[in-house]
Amino acid sequence: MSSTSQKHKDFVAEPMGEKPVTALAGIGEVLGNRLEEKGFDKAYVVLGQFLVLKKDEELFRDWLKDTCGANAKQQGDCYGCLREWCDSFL
User: Fold this and answer.
1) How far lies 40's CA from each of 2, 3, 6, 27, 31, in Å?
2) Spatial distance between the Cα atoms of 74 and 21, rounded to a whole number of angstroms
3) Cα separation of 9 and 89, whole Å?
4) HSE of 90 in the Cβ direction (CA atoms, 13 Å)?
5) Which of 14, 23, 35, 87 could be stapled to 40 by a disulfide with Cβ–Cβ 3.0 to 4.6 Å?
6) Which residues have a Cβ under 8 Å from the Cβ of 8 and sit 6 or more positions away?
7) Read out DSSP for 4-68?
8) How far apart (Å, rounded) are the C-alpha atoms in residues 22 and 36?
9) pLDDT category, 2, cuts 50, 70, 90?
10) Do residues 35 and 67 touch, judged by C-beta distance below 8 A?
């Protein structure tokens, strides 16, 4: 498994609260803006979609690609971040 970014470590270290969507690993300003335009303005809204997709990696990656154009690395970073957060807090 690849090493995680500082952004990933910061995100999974504490409850999500009202963090913006750009707090998610793999989601920068450009992808964040695309997600916000589609109503996914907070990290918890993306988490909701992740849970609706039953934490399925392939479905979530496809959704992220279709929704905001995330590349494979961005998809993997975001999926890993949410999966680890869920393992810690759900």
Assistant:
1) 27, 27, 23, 12, 11
2) 13
3) 14
4) 13
5) 35
6) 25, 77, 80, 81, 84
7) PPHHHHHHHTS--TT-BGGGSTT--HHHHHHHHHTT--BHHHHHHHHHHTTT-HHHHHHHHHHHH
8) 10
9) low
10) yes
CB-CB neighbours of 81 under 10 Å: 27
Q: Which amino acid would we find at residue 18?
A: E
Which structure tokens are listed for 87?
Answer: 């393992």
Tens-place pLDDT, residues 45-74: 999 999 999 999 999 999 999 999 999 999
Q: Tokens 């303005």, residue?
A: 41
What is the model's pTM?
A: 0.94
